[in-house]
UniProtKB/TrEMBL annotation:
Compartments (UniProt record): Nucleus
Taxonomic path: Eukaryota, Metazoa, Ecdysozoa, Arthropoda, Hexapoda
Example GO BP: protein ubiquitination
Major location (coarse): nucleus
UniProt key word Transmembrane: no
Source taxon at top rank: Eukaryota
The protein's name: F-box domain-containing protein
Keywords: Nucleus, Ubl conjugation pathway
PANTHER family: LD30288P (PTHR13123:SF7)
Pathway: Protein modification; protein ubiquitination
GO terms under cellular component: cytoplasm; nucleus; SCF ubiquitin ligase complex
Natural source organism: Pieris brassicae
């Protein structure tokens, strides 16, 4: 006679119904705003919607005890541990939807979307991950339209996803390979993104806004240029204004850029003598030889905790076993102290998943 009861091996997952479908509550517990709908970000009604428990409204308690965005991952599968890392779950748990509105994490999200959307990886992902990435791109477009910044990065992503869409149209007898309903959803999302991009208008500030960039002395303009870490921005600034062109031709700007991206050993291996050094030519030579510092391109990157194998944003932290377990903390002190977290660039982040 069968015995019907709860499975003693696991209590099961708590699921929450959202506008996108059913989602695990543990995945949504790390989101910053706790709204259910991640797509249709431009709908103001969706921004205020929050999920609640079946027992009642506990939004006030959830906001007090909110868990920082983090995601435990499986580094290596063993005989005892056979784990699988899901991209869509990691994107939700790390709260990428709110990261696009953070100026420190914006470039990191753009680089990650460029690796996924502008290549052939998007079509190899599950349908839920595809919808989530296009939703992130829509949120990013809405953020650019609001802030009027990083328009070139948005246009590059839109061009890449449009080219991918056109290539998929001819992949299988004149139509995309896969679900027609899914690609119909993608078409509507891409059309909304195009409407947002086409509606962006950057206007020059009026005469009441002072001082303008042209009113600043050369010393201030030079200090601005010395804080630019991308050589492409220096070339764009040179073509935009004659004063910036003369300042960008100074050796000091390119010398600071060389010292920022490369070590002294790398510089000494190429530089013959200190006298009459063409620092701009030396920078491009070192760039082709060694590449640029990937961690210097982003104000903040994901970090990997070496103790609990958890991905997290360093500025927000995460619930680590070294802070919660006194016995583990004592063992760390005997071993020499806790290890610093390891930075995870976008390319390394994608290696954790089977793409």
């Amino acid at each position: 006679m069968p015995f019907i009861s709860k499975d003693w091996r696991s209590p099961g997952e708590v699921w929450v119904k959202t506008q996108e479908g059913w989602e695990k509550k543990k995945v949504l517990e790390c989101t910053a705003q706790r709204y259910a709908a991640i797509t249709n970000y431009n709908n103001p009604d969706d921004k205020e919607q929050k999920w609640s428990d079946e027992d009642g409204d506990k939004s006030s308690e959830d906001e007090v005890a909110r868990v920082p965005p983090h995601c435990h991952i499986t580094i290596k599968c063993t005989r005892e541990i056979a784990g699988f890392n899901g991209l869509s779950e990691a994107v939700r748990r790390l709260d990428f939807s709110s990261a696009v509105r953070d100026v420190r994490r914006f470039n990191y999200i753009c680089a990650l979307l460029e690796l996924l959307l502008c290549g052939q990886r998007l079509t190899h992902l599950p349908g839920a991950a595809q919808k989530l990435l296009l939703s992130m791109l829509e949120q990013l477009a809405d953020q650019v339209a609001t802030s009027k910044q990083n328009l070139n990065a948005l246009r590059a992503l839109v061009v890449g996803v449009t080219a991918l869409r056109e290539a998929e149209r001819r992949s299988c007898w004149g139509r995309p390979l896969g679900s027609r309903a899914l690609w119909g959803h993608h078409d509507h999302a891409i059309a909304r993104i195009h409407r947002i991009v086409n509606s962006i208008r950057i206007q020059e500030p009026g005469p009441e806004v002072v001082p303008k960039l042209h009113d600043l002395p050369e010393e201030c303009i030079r200090e601005i240029l010395l804080r630019i870490s991308d050589h492409r921005d220096l070339d764009a600034a040179s073509s935009a204004w004659s004063v910036m062109a003369s300042l960008c031709s100074e050796h000091r700007v390119w010398r600071e850029l060389v010292n920022f991206h490369f070590t002294s050993q790398q510089i000494d291996s190429v530089q013959k003598t200190d006298a009459d050094t063409d620092w701009k030519k030396l920078f491009h030579q070192l760039r082709r030889l060694n590449g640029l510092r990937e961690d210097a391109q982003y104000a903040e990157t994901l970090s990997l905790c070496r103790h609990c194998k958890c991905l997290f944003w360093r500025s927000l932290g995460h619930p680590c076993i070294a802070d919660q377990c006194p016995e583990y903390r004592e063992r760390l002190k005997e071993a020499g102290g806790p290890l610093p977290p390891h930075p995870v660039p976008p390319a390394a982040f994608l290696k954790f998943f089977s793409l």
